[in-house]
């Protein structure tokens, strides 16, 4: 009796405190740049959880002077390659693959995309119906929030996105959610307002570490990671780099050394890359390396 109680206690202790905090999550944005990239071009390691993130669905008209549509999203990614039947195939071939879509992004038809709701209720209602339709058509699993410019205050952003995420999860339309902030005063104000009220609805923080200066050092990168972990307290902050010309810590300058440090501290929750479109010409070298780092035991 006493010994079985002890065993149960030990088991509970182990589940609560000893299970390693790092996970094997690899995510990659795909489809924003019309580079004719397909899911099957990207190497997929069977020993990681792999998320493709379609870029982007945007609530703007597709015109030469695009205007906001108050939450009525349409898919702007490369739909030629990244279509429902290709999604079925890649998931059938790789049971560890899930597919998400990202909302908004930086720009559409060379104009900035602003978060511009007419009102909270109307935006949320339009967003729920248009997003549900796209998720069902493409059989998507998750959603990522990537507004980068704002025509509304932080509270309005928090309420709109919070209500949207609540509904999508409650109705099991998606099974995971993420946000993609970066270090900029306005961006952080909006996302931190969302985080403080609705952080419990957000599974991952795809922090855009590549929005920091070029030639970020390993030491600076680790400092930035701590700063953002404190900002998004309790969140799974994923580390990131880009394969385009943007800044941050690049693989050739020690990105994977920083990953090793975080891994040894049980803080490596996953890695994401912007973007498959940019990686295609170099043969996805760093996609392979990122997944190897995540897949191998400590
Ligand atoms: C797109 O890529 C496929 C191979 O993945 C190739 O067969 C096709 O010709 C390419 N199309 C263009 C327009 O480059
Ligand atoms: C936007 O319009 C262009 C030009 O007509 C077209 O090639 C593209 O497929 C359209 N995109 C969407 C998302 O409708």
From TrEMBL:
Gene3D superfamilies: Glycosidases (3.20.20.80)
Signal peptide per UniProt: 1-23
Keywords: Glycosidase, Hydrolase, Signal
Keyword Signal: yes
Molecular functions (GO terms): hydrolase activity, hydrolyzing O-glycosyl compounds
Residue ranges annotated for the GH18 domain, each copy included: 24-297
Protein name per Swiss-Prot or TrEMBL: GH18 domain-containing protein
Similarity annotation: Belongs to the glycosyl hydrolase 18 family.
Alphabetical list of InterPro entries matching this protein: Chitinase-like, GH, Glyco_hydro18_cat, Glyco_hydro_18_chit_AS
A GO BP annotation: carbohydrate metabolic process
